[in-house]
Structures are given as structure tokens and as C-alpha cells.
Hints:
Blueprint: H1 3-13, H2 17-28, H3 40-54, H4 61-71
Amino acid sequence: MTPKNKLHALVDACNDDLLVEEAIALFTAEPADWWDALTEQEQQKTLTAISQLDMNQGIPNADVMQEAWKRIGK
């Protein structure tokens, strides 16, 4: 049975109208945009970081991880 057919069967067998309404809400909801969940300060810091990366001013992940491990004592 395909996942879609299994879902159809589950909906058909469900006698809980509230649960079906919640499923409908889940399937019809607009996807949340993570950007909108950020504060203005977080958005600005993200844009600054992207700009720095575009100018090759980023720090390699290996360097960041090495410094992080130093700070936590490992």
C-alpha cells in the first residue's frame, strides 16, 4: 500500500471529526517562513553574515570548531 493510500484508509476509518479537522488544517496551512520568525536584530545579523561570506570574509568551519573545543576544554 502506498503512503497516500494508507493515509486515505486512515482518514476513511477515522470517526473523530476533530482529528479530521486538525488533519485538514495541517494539510491546508501555509508553510511558515523561518525568516519571519526571526527578530529584526537576528535578520540584520544574518544579512551581515551573508554579506561577509559574499566578500570571502567567512571563517572556515574547522577553525570555528577548533576554537569551540578549546573553549569548552576538550
